[in-house]
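Hi team,

Filling in the usual template for the complex we talked about on Friday. All components are listed, including any nucleic acid strands or ligand strings, so the model treats them as one assembly.

SUBMITTER: L.P.
PURPOSE: interface mapping
COMPONENTS: two
RESIDUES: 581
SEQUENCES:
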Amino acid sequence: MEPFIQVEQLNYAYDEDGGQRRRVLRDLSFSVERGEYVAILGHNGSGKSTLAKLLNLILTPDSGKIIIAGREITDPNLTEDELYEVRRRMGMVFQNPDNQLVATIVEEDVAFGPENLGVPSEEIRRRVDEALALVGMTKYAHHEPHRLSGGQKQRVAIAGIIAMLPDCIIFDESTAMLDPMGRRDVLRIMDNLNRERGITVLTITHYMNEAARADRVLVLNDGELYMQGTPAEIFSHPDRLAAIGLDVPQCTDLVHQLRDAGIAVEGDCLTPAQCADAICAACAASGITFAPPRT
Amino acid sequence: MNTLQLEHISYLYSAGTPYEMRALDDVSLTIRGGTVTGLIGHTGSGKSTLVQLLNGLNRPTAGRVLIDGEDIWEKPKEIARLRYRVGLVMQYPEYQLFEETVRADIAYGPKNMGLSTEEIEARVLEAAEFAGISRDMLDQSPFDLSGGQKRRAAIAGIMAMRPEVLVLDEPAAGLDPQGREEILGGIRAYREKSGSTVIIVSHSMEDMARYCDELIVMANAKLLMQGSCEEIFSHPEELAAVGLDVPQITRVAELLRQRGLPLPESIYTVEQAAAALRQLMGGVGR
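RESULT (copied from the run log):
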């Protein structure tokens, strides 16, 4: 079966003052399967956000192809209807929730997308209710968005995308401005959309423990694909990541530090639970025992 | 020196209207001079309102703000001078860059202070160094810098005024790990060199644990807790109840303690966890 997103030899450069061109993406190729959960890592300026904007044609590439569900969206003969269809299928949630809410009432904001698509009003009602329920914001349907917390605003923005029934949602640092609870809520929604609803998720992030939740990680460096693999594969190379300004989740860092000290801890250790399991197993393996847990 | 005190501070937005909102409710606390203090709290907990009180951008509805025992609103007409003593770096300060060169932008504050040309130049160079702005960047347009560099230039602009109290609202938000480290490391260096008091607002518990001496926890317009990282991060339930968290590594240590490993309760950095485990597991695998 062909991949859902196929990117081939993509190039993009921005115009700079004095007629200079700054190359942001260089011969970038990769693919994403339908229903995959992919994290995109890279230092500031590595081309992540440019890539996101190319995937739903906010920008058009200088050369190269993007094929989504078998249709080349970079085809110069793409019709306007097809363009809007790309935007519907490839939803996007940005970093700052204040930049993506347009209406004065939460439910009207969620209805904005489907209204523009010409969806019949009973159907809009159904979609808005469902989308708000999905992000846990039903009881705020009649509230004013600007009075919500950052995390709540971001959930409303996500509901607005869900109401357009996308195949894929691109989260461009959507948790960067949120407090820990807001971040937890948004991450849980991302997981649900992917696992329960089969929506393909691409998430751009600077938080390594968020990338650890993905099926696969793409690492960009200066517009090129630097590494790709499962989170366990990627985070087993802390030195290669450090060389381009990235790091690994704290759990993984701990296990690497212990291994460097000659302590054999097995396993991937991407989450606190995995990490604790691995350390306990290492203790048991070498005959170190501790008093039974207090209850 | 450089000690900040809040005495029974309350702050109301839109006081006397139907939209009246109590952003701070009877907050009293002391920030010891020369510390790096982290301010954490959920969205809307009052953090930003609080930092805007420290340099007189907001005037408290009730209560007093004292620097070294002196009420900052004693002489309201002189409040502008306070802003040289208490430097505030707001969120996303890179959007406030405006001069033709990075050098001129960093010099803007010292120039307004009426300093001599030589003094201004010396301060620009010093601040640029703290913020990690190289010499060749100084003559570039700030708009040609990368996002992280712009952020650092904006922070240098405040450091160049050599404030006794440096307050930064989410200085590392949106930056990659290396960019975060450069900024937060530079802020620590500024404190070491100047002896200033530094206050950092952040949503990253991991960053707070690494760079702060003390933490202040705000929740629902009130002061919830104040103490060392060790004290604050040993209250995971209370933090979770107000939408906050502990560093990931603290959760690992907690899980290990539940399984009987005799680890101290004061683990909040990876280095501490590794050291404690090396002691316990020292011989394993050698």
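MY TAKE: DSSP finds eleven helices and ten strands in chain B. Chain B touches chain A through 48 residues (CB under 8 Å).

Thanks, L.
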